[in-house]
Design a protein that fits this description.
With 331 residues, the protein is of the alpha/beta class. The chain contains twelve helices and twelve strands. The chain has two domains: 2-177 and 215-238, NAD(P)-binding Rossmann-like Domain (Rossmann fold, 3-Layer(aba) Sandwich), CATH 3.40.50.720; 182-211 and 242-271 and 294-322, UDP-galactose 4-epimerase, domain 1. It has helices at 11-23, 63-69, 85-90, 93-113, 146-165, 187-196, 216-229, 246-257, 282-287, 295-308, 310-317, 320-329; strands at 2-6, 28-33, 53-57, 75-78, 117-123, 169-174, 176-178, 201-204, 210-215, 235-238, 243-245, 264-267. Strands 3-2-1-4-5-6-10 form a seven-stranded parallel β-sheet, sandwiched between helices. It has a three-stranded mixed β-sheet with strand order 7-9-11. β5, α5 and β6 form a beta-alpha-beta unit. Bound molecules: nicotinamide-adenine-dinucleotide (NAD) and 2'deoxy-thymidine-5'-diphospho-alpha-D-glucose.
Length: 331
């Protein structure tokens, strides 16, 4: 099987490629990635020599490039996206370009090539916030941020291509991932690396917002299952079942590193900040998936990974990130 993975140099995509290459030694993986600020070939150093793996630098919005890399591809898994909510509030244009238009380019090219399977990697954020209970796949989409609205736009295109053209397409919508190789603008890696450097941890609002955390390889396992066994035209929610508020997560990280709570710095809340995400995952569980990581152990492992792999994040935090951080947090 030959799989085109787009956005494979990012956080989840790189973990997914590693899993596929080790689990299916006869598969071919082509990784098409634009290498935006979030794309990083260091994430795949350990597989770059694998003869079943090929990297192509390119934009999913560029139909010529996409057409070339889709040659003889059996399946497409689209991770490529602008993925950070705060950046979408600062400037939505790139989000609409990549997450909506880029998805269209992939779908249209997949249709022309008669690709056997198209899997769109989406997010629980498309449903919006929920005070009590959990969203099912059939619930209405009510995205709050330009990021989640652009992801919802991509999802709508995917379903339209399935209904109108019969494209064998599926969608996964996962909750918040954490683990190795996550760009340090997101809560887990930002707070872990700041704490390692004794820099304040900017906690939005009163820290009571709730997210459902999933260890990244558990999500990759579920994506693999849906790719091979999911029913086309269907959406599958993938959640870790670990709902925690941000204050609790922050406390756990500090405790793990033996750092003081005085590092927590309450800052202005995110605009339109969704209070709680929660998804019902009975559908993907019925396919045969369940998370294999215990939350506390996975958090411990993740903290240790960033502590042991300063080479990976120190470079990032010294570059483009500094400008972004100054703009975002005024420091
Ligand atoms: P990420 O920001 O770490 O990686 C995104 C990757 O896409 C980068 O390698 C980047 O270079 C690439 N990319 C961006 N624009 C591109 C373009 N136009 N053409 C080609 N490549 C491009 O993101 P992530 O956290 O790994 O998320 C991957 C996917 O999963 C995204 O679609 C995101 O919406 C979704 N998702 C993420 C989470 C999470 O918690 N991180 C949860 C649910 C869903
Ligand atoms: O739910 C899935 C989504 O999870 C994905 O679709 C997105 O790509 C991914 O970025 C993530 O979005 P969130 O906005 O939930 O993740 P983030 O890590 O940015 O923030 C998690 C929570 O922590 C959120 O309530 C905001 C808060 N936060 C975040 C940052 C970066 C802070 O309090 N301070 C911060 O500095």
């Amino acid at each position: 099987m030959k799989i085109l993975v787009t956005g494979g140099a990012g956080f989840i995509g790189s973990n997914f490629i590693r899993l596929i290459l080790s689990r299916y030694p006869d598969y071919e993986v082509v990784n098409l990635d634009k290498l935006t600020y979030a794309g990083n070939l260091d994430n795949l150093k350990d597989v770059e020599q694998n003869r079943h793996y090929r990297f192509v630098q390119g934009d999913i919005c560029d139909m010529d490039v996409v057409d070339k890399v889709m040659d003889k591809v059996d399946a497409v898994v689209n991770f490529a996206a602008e993925s950070h909510v705060d950046r979408s509030i600062g400037g939505p244009a790139d989000f609409i370009q990549t997450d909506v238009f880029g998805t269209y380019v992939l779908l249209e090219t997949a249709r022309q090539h008669g690709v056997g399977r198209y899997l769109q990697i989406s997010t629980d954020e498309v449903y919006g916030s929920i005070r009590a209970g959990s969203f099912k796949e059939t619930d209405m989409l009510e995205p709050s941020s330009p990021y989640s609205a652009s992801k919802a736009g991509g999802d709508m295109q995917v379903m339209a291509y399935h209904t109108t053209f019969g494209l064998p397409a599926l969608i996964t919508r996962s909750s918040n991932n954490f683990g190795p190789y996550q760009y340090p603008e997101k809560l887990f890696p930002l707070f872990i690396t700041n704490a390692l450097e004794d820099i304040p941890l900017p906690l939005y609002g009163d820290g009571s917002n709730v997210r459902d955390w999933i260890y990244v390889t558990d999500n990759c396992d579920a994506i693999d299952l849906v790719l091979h066994k999911g029913e086309v035209g269907q959406v599958y929610n993938i959640g870790g079942g670990n709902e925690r508020d941000n204050h609790t997560i922050t406390g756990m990280i500090l405790k793990e590193l033996g750092k003081p709570e005085s590092l927590i710095q309450p800052v202005a809340d995110r605009l339109g900040h969704d209070f709680r995400y929660s998804i019902d995952c009975s559908k993907v569980r019925a396919l045969g998936w369940q998370p294999s990581h215990n939350f506390e152990d996975a958090l411990q492992e993740t903290v240790k990974w960033y502590a042991d792999n300063r080479w990976w994040w120190e470079k990032i935090k010294g570059g483009e990130f500094l400008e972004y951080y100054k703009q975002q947090y005024g420091k």
